[in-house]
């Protein structure tokens, strides 16, 4: 998990690279009220080490987001639904891609409260084996997701991210690119 300052650096770089050219280290300092370029460099190096950013040598403005384009994830009403039945999509960046397919599902009730998931939160569910042993798992009961940490059940995937209905997103791999959009 990123601390608040590292998240602010990442968000600023993300916003700048989406709308303009990557910022210089001095621009990052000015935008975020940092007094020293070494502080900005420390956070940039942290983000590079954690896989959020890539650097092109010692070039000025040589910072870019890792992994290319965001994933477009279908929002489904049931876990047995197919992406073709999705009414909207949400984009997340970056998520591990490999063989993992992702769907998003909105938490309808209070059954996820024990895991800090509120009614209305959007869960990004990775279909398949979780990349870490302590991740929250998703089992399907008649098409409805059931959240568990019990690894003995027949689970279909894992919770990769949670888009809070009223708060900033918590993505277990990174931050979201944008909110759900109608197609």
TrEMBL record:
Q: Which organism is it from?
A: Ruminococcus champanellensis (strain DSM 18848 / JCM 17042 / KCTC 15320 / 18P13)
InterPro entries the record matches = LexA_DNA-bd_dom, WH-like_DNA-bd_sf, WH_DNA-bd_sf
> What name does the UniProt record give this protein?
SOS-response transcriptional repressors (RecA-mediated autopeptidases)
BP GO annotations: proteolysis
- UniProt lineage: Bacteria, Bacillati, Bacillota, Clostridia, Eubacteriales
Which ranges carry the LexA repressor DNA-binding domain? 7-62
Select a single GO molecular function from the record's annotations and give it: serine-type endopeptidase activity
Query: Domain of life, per the record?
Result: Bacteria
